[in-house]
């Protein structure tokens, strides 16, 4: 039998990470934050002095293929260096969005993402978990929330970390990232044909987790 996978895809700041990691915890499954891999790739490329453009697509892809990355106790290590905070800035997200639009980079990260599918099961979040990486997943959820709500949540998050761009700046920023992610030629952000849609604009995290668990139960 296939190792179970729950995919949670959706736009920037929709709450995918929180929903996916809590669902994984409740099910006792592994958790894959695929966006972190693009963030780490972008950071590794910048540290190697590469511009994040098409001219460097193949050099960046070959770095991505042998990314010395480790996830340990909630920390993200790149070649032994703790990059947990460095990959969480808005700039790191924008850079991730740039490298993720390069087809060779996406291909280079496929095997690494699929290697997280191990027993007892996996919950994976990203943009193309259900469409490209785990097309045979047993449950696919497409999570959305209004741009206003997402900007508000991101604002709260950033304030708690000590930076505070305005809500309007954040909203413009995430709409730009949505546009880039939805319009790219390869693996654009869109719901899988068999995904269930969940809009959490007016929903608590607990209620979203309960919904996903109920869908999961219904499929057993
Ligand atoms: O989810 P997160 O905001 O960390 O992702 C950062 C960027 O990485 C996204 O804006 C998107 O461009 C890219 N990404 C992707 N495919 C994924 C996950 C993230 O293209 N599966």
TrEMBL record:
The keyword Nuclease does not apply. Its main location: cytoplasm. ATP binds at residues 10-18. GO terms for biological process: amino acid biosynthetic process; aromatic amino acid family biosynthetic process; chorismate biosynthetic process; pyrimidine nucleotide metabolic process. One of its GO terms (molecular function) is dCMP kinase activity. The keyword Nuclease does not apply. Keywords: Amino-acid biosynthesis, Aromatic amino acid biosynthesis, ATP-binding, Cytoplasm, Kinase, Nucleotide-binding, Transferase. Catalyzes the transfer of the enolpyruvyl moiety of phosphoenolpyruvate (PEP) to the 5-hydroxyl of shikimate-3-phosphate (S3P) to produce enolpyruvyl shikimate-3-phosphate and inorganic phosphate. Monomer. Belongs to the cytidylate kinase family. Type 1 subfamily. This is Multifunctional fusion protein. It comes from Ramlibacter henchirensis. The chain holds residues 438 to 657 of 662 of the full protein.
